Amino acid sequence: MNHDTIIAGLTALQADGLACVVCGADYLRVRVPHVPVGRSVTGSQVFACVGCCPDDARRAAGGLLR
Question: Is there a contact between 36 and 3 (Cβ–Cβ < 8 Å)?
Answer without folding.
Answer: yes
